[in-house]
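Shall we go through a protein fold together, starting from nothing but its sequence? Label the sequence line and the structure token line clearly, so we can match residues to local backbone shapes. Would you write everything just below, so we can both look at the same thing?
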Amino acid sequence: MGITVRKVQEQVEDPNQDLNLEQFNELLSQLQQARENGVQILSYQEYVNDRNASNAELATLQEEYQNFLKDKNARVEELTKRLEDED
């Protein structure tokens, strides 16, 4: 199980220390309270899927923005040329 939170709740120095049942139940209780307060809690696979979808959406938006810039610049050049031809 992996849990990432922005605030450290407890740090264990001994890597051989297991989470006992009481600590585990307390952790589950804290996670349930966080979920009830609107924190989205995902499984690892849900997180990976969400991250991949976000990256794909970002790539699509970047491509759309680059196309928008190309179209805008082409239109500006066209209008600039038209204005120059009128002079």
Notes: Helices lie at 21-36, 44-86. Residues 41 and 47 are 9 Å apart (CA to CA). The first helix runs from residue 21 to 36. The mean pLDDT is 84.
